[in-house]
Amino acid sequence: MEEAEKKSLPLIGADIAWGDVEKVACKVENFEPLAVVEGGRITSSPPAFMPYAFLTVEFVGAHPRLPGKATMPVANREDFLTLWEVFKERGISDEEASVVYRLSFYHDPIMRLLFSRNTPWIHIYIFNKVDKSKQVDI
């Protein structure tokens, strides 16, 4: 993806409300970490006001309020460590596609405030790509 195109993508959380992408399948096109993991621990991280990473995602299916692509910040530590393991350690082959969902477990604002820092928000699925002749595309 061109650098200019990445910069022009809307940012989830700023340009698109998090509630609009809740439970929406997002195909991951790119994982851009701002932190570094060594030995399962974060050894270098961005300043406190910055996320650990950014995902470039494409929304799967037709959603009237959502554009085709967007940038998703990854601010949760556990989410970042899982994404690092999937994209940097395991890797995604050309025959696979990765899809993420943002799911909130706590709909009560007080519970969300108390537990959201330690609860993963992004759920990752890896699928084998299916042949176009079978009319399923991920």
Describe the structure.
With 138 residues, this protein is of the alpha+beta class. The chain has one domain (3-134). Helix content is 22%, strand content 30%. It has 4 helices and 7 strands, in the order H-H-E-E-E-E-E-H-E-H-E. It has helices at residues 3-8, 18-21, 77-90, 109-115, and strands at residues 26-33, 36-38, 41-44, 53-59, 69-74, 96-102, 122-128. The strands form 2 sheets. A 5-stranded antiparallel beta sheet has the order 5-4-1-6-7. A two-stranded antiparallel sheet has the order 2-3. Residues 132-138 have low confidence and may be disordered.
Short description:
This protein is an alpha+beta fold and 138 residues long.
What topology does this entry show?
Elements: H1 3-8, H2 18-21, E1 26-33, E2 36-38, E3 41-44, E4 53-59, E5 69-74, H3 77-90, E6 96-102, H4 109-115, E7 122-128
Antiparallel strand pairs: 1-4, 1-6, 2-3, 4-5, 6-7
Estimate nothing, just give the exact number of structural domains: 1
Structural class from helices and strands? Answer: alpha+beta
User: Which percent range fits the helix content?
Assistant: 10-25%
The major beta sheet can be summarized as: 5 strands, antiparallel
**Rounded mean pLDDT score:** 79
- CA-based shape: globular
Q: What is the tally of helical segments?
A: 4
Total number of β-strand segments?
7
Order of helices and strands: HHEEEEEHEHE
Q: Measured on Cα atoms, how large is the radius of gyration?
A: 15 Å
Write out the strand line-up for the largest beta sheet, numbering strands in chain order: 5-4-1-6-7
**Segments where pLDDT lies below 50 for 5+ residues?**
132-138
What is the first-to-last residue Cα distance? Answer: 19 Å
Strand fraction equals 25-35%
